[in-house]
Each structure stands twice: as structure tokens, then as C-alpha cells.
Amino acid sequence: MIDVKNLTVRFGGVVALDDLSLNITDDVVGLIGPNGAGKTTLTNAFSGFVNVASGSVSVNGLNLIGMAPHKRSRWGLARSFQKVQIVSDLTVEDHLATVLDAKGANRSLRESAIARALDFVGISSARNIPGADLNPYQRRKTEIAKCLVGAPRVILLDEPGGGLSEHEMQDLRRIILGIHPEFGAQILLVDHDVELIRDVCTSTAVLDFGKLIAYGNTAEVLRDEVVKAAYLGR
Amino acid sequence: MARRISGKNFITLAVVLMVIWLLPLLLSSLWVKVVTSAVIFSLAATGVSILFAQLGLINLSQVALIGVGGWVLLRLNYATGLPFTVSLLAGGIVAAIIGAVFALPAVRMRGLYLALVTLMAAGALQILFNAFQFPNGGEGFWGVAQQSAGDVRRPFLAQTDGAYLRYVMLVVAICFTIVGMHRFAAPGRAWAMIRQSEANAMAAGVNVTFYKTWAFALSGFLAGISGGLLAGALQQLDARTFVAGDSILLFALSIVGGAYHWLGAIIAGLLFKLLPALFNDFGISADLTLVIFGIALLHAIITAPKGISGQILAGISSLAARRRVSRD
Ligand SMILES: Nc1ncnc2c1ncn2[C@@H]1O[C@H](COP(=O)(O)OP(=O)(O)O)[C@@H](O)[C@H]1O
Ligand SMILES: [Mg+2]
User: Complex ipTM, two decimals?
Assistant: First the structure.
């Protein structure tokens, strides 16, 4: 269970998250909201990349705030970035290996963990290709595979569908739907694509100006008039 | 990670061993000394290159750290009966620790600011060297006396200058191997990720502070080893060898040689020590080398970001490709 309590994050005069409280119990939860609503800031608060003015983020009773960012990752917090982060001179496999290096996985476990994650997202064939030579969707998939190795507990995906073709979206949907059954991690999915959110998220939270304006069953949330006004009916 | 030990690696190893064996036989005694210094500075240049190529960090304190390694070796030489190689390692470790301390600002700084901090650290060490000089067999902690320097013991099998050059090349080859092992293992992957984005590295569980510090320590270690080797080569050290400005020169030459391949470090060492000696030999002022270095740096920055080594390696691989095409 992920419990965000009275979380406030400020950037100078901008209040990016305004006393936000959110209790997440479902396995795959959506997070939507207009540009600048604070979605990425929330993922960054999970990761420890922004200063939190007040409040807490806890998972199963463990407060993440105060833990060093790399320790959060080793504990089991995995994430992808809105702007894909792929290193040009590391191969696909190297990206996953880096995560396992940090977690201190032993040799035989490494090999099977890497093979399983690559196979799951469907880029086993690109295993030895350096980041520089990957196409945009392969980059996305590498980033997701990186989230899957080393027993993740919580996975944050920040707009994984950005810039993908219709066909790639289909594939991405399959991948995200399979993560929880296959790897057991709880997923927080940020995306603009309402279809994707509708298909994969049991419940969905809506942010606007750093505040929670709706939260609950995805279908109901997407029907909500306030949500439509703030977001869908732009 | 399918980096097999290929035939190419064996060829490289064979060539390296041949050079180690042959070079001292081919050179006159003066040139043995010059080449020894050049090879020694190649090692220090490797440290500068690691920081720049792997992490994008600029270290302008390397020559001062060479002085640290040299000081420790001389100190242990006169105060203890330790074998040369043990004192050499000790000098490397002390310089590694000091290098790691220099890394403290690196955790927060980048670019010009970091460069300036490391340059100031080099300046501070330069002042210390000037004030206390290098041990030459005198009494007390600093071990300096108004006397001609005593003997610096050399490794048992490397008493003559020629044999010592072989020892130096062997040590440098071992250090290059250590560096290569870093690049293709966990530290290399962590460094690559840090260089691209620290946030991304942290999200992958990489301890950014640790790996930056580790890179500085490794770089300092290489400087310290080269300082100890230099002390063994010259038998005494002079504070004027370790001025802060030379660290800038060594950094510039590492870029000229090429920071991304060990060949670049060799070229940097040769430019740093061999070229001025050659000019002297031809009766040209060695100061002219500075002008050439300046032009070479501009050339590297503008047209050859991977330095001379990058151009050579690209040339070799295009030649090889052409041969493959003509064979088919
Ligand atoms: N590092 C930062 N520095 C200053 N302002 C920021 C920073 N990150 C986000 N913001 C601001 O915080 C608000 C929320 O941004 P963000 O979380 O990126 O929104 P979203 O991901 O929902 O589009 C915006 O007003 C944005 O300009
Ligand atoms: Mg965003």
C-alpha cells in the first residue's frame, strides 16, 4: 500500500504539490491531469529528486522521504522518465546490469533476471545494441525492462506512451498489463492517453494545480464532470 | 556484455610485450631516460582521461598528485627497508586518498568550478612541495638535508636504466589493464549512467557520490604510481617539477591525445616529455612545443573530439574495412 500524506512541494513561488494526500491500494493506478499539474513532481518526490516541504510518502509503512535516492531504488522503487533516459554507449543489457550491480545480485540470478525482463518486454534481440543505435520504442522498452530487474516493489512510469505509434501503443498496453501479474510490483502510471489509462488502471487519480481533484474507479473518474472540465474537455 | 577475449586482444598483448622487451635495447642511454619519463606521464594522463571521458569531469591537480606519490616513495625509501614495489603501491594509495578528498567538491560541482577547485588544490600542494622539498635522505619527518641525494632503491630485477624502463612499462601495462577492467564492469556502467544523467543513475540504484569519489581515487592512484616510478627513474625529485600549471598542460595533452582510449594517454605522455626533448635535440627552443600544443588543442576541440588516438583508430578501422571489401 502506497500512502502519500499531506505532501507539499514548492519551486520558489510555484506550489507544484499542494498538501496532497493519496492512498493507493490497487495494483495498477493511473495518474492524469493537465500539463503542469504536478504529476512528474509527484514521481520525483517518490524518487527523492525534489525537496519536499512537508508530508510523507510511505510504502507498506516505510517512509521513503529521508532515504537517499539510490537507496530507494535498491529498496525496490523503479521508474521511467518522461524524457527517456538511455545512455548512448551502454548496450541494452548494460542498462539492466547497472541496476543489478547496485542491488548486488549474484551472477546466475543476474543472467536469468536480464533474460526474463528483456523477453517480457520483447527486446531480447536488441540485447547487445548500444543505446545510440536504438529506435525510440526500443529505448522506451529498455527503460521499462530496467524497471523490471532486481525485484521491484513499486514502479513509476512517467508518460511511457509519449510519442508512440498506434501499433506501439498496443504493445505497450500488453506490457503494462502484464507487469503486475508477472513481477508483482505495484504500478503508478502517468499518461495523457485516456485509452491507455482506461484499459490498464483499476483506479485513477486526477491532479490539477498540485491538488487531487478526483480519485477512484477509473471509469467513474473519467465520467466525472469536474475532471472533464479540468482535463478532458480542454 | 559479450566481450570475449578475442584474437585482437592477444595481438595487442603480444605487441605490448614485444615493445616492453625491445624498446630498451633500441634506445641510447639518454633516450631511455626520456622515454621512461614519457611512459610514466602516460600513466598519469590516463587518470585525467578517465575522469574526463567517463564522467566529463576536469581534473587540474594531476601533476601535484604525481608529486604526492613521489614524495611517499622517497619518504619510505629513506625511512624503511621496504621493497620498491611496496613503497610504490603505498604512494599510489596515499595519492588515491588525497585524490578522493579532492572529489568532495566534485559531488556538487561540475565544469569550470570543479576545474578551478582542483587547480587551487594543486596550487596548495605546489606551495607545500616548495616549502618542504622532497626527501633526499636527511633527518626528521620531512627527510631533507643540504646534501646530494642518497640512493633510491630500484626493484631487484630493474637496476639499470634499461631494465627499469621495462619495469615501468610493465607497471603501466598492468595499470592500463586495471583501468580497462573498470570500464567494462560495474564502475564503467555506473560512470556512463552518471555522465548521462545523475537522476537516472540514482534511479538505477547507483551511489553517485561513491562512484565519483572512486573515479577520483583511481585517477589519484595512477598519479601516485607514476610519481613513485618517476622518483625511481630520476633518483631524486625537485619541487619545480610539480607546478600547478603543468597539470593544465597534462589535461590539455590528454585531450589532444584522446581521452577515450589508452593510446591517447600514451600520445599525451610522449607529447608531454618526448617532444620537448626532441626539440632540444634539434636545437629548437622547447618553449615552441607550447605553441604546438596550443594549436593541437584547438585542432582537437574543433575537429577531433576523440583526439589523435581517435583519428588513428578510425584510420586503422577504415583501412581494415577496405581490405575486407577488397578481399570479398
Ligand atoms: N525543477 C523544477 N524547477 C522549477 N519548477 C518546476 C520544476 N519541476 C516542475 N516545476 C513546476 O512545477 C509544476 C508541475 O510540473 P510537473 O510536475 O512537471 O507537471 P506535469 O508532469 O504534471 O506536467 C509546473 O508549474 C512546473 O513548471
Ligand atoms: Mg510530466
Answer: 0.92
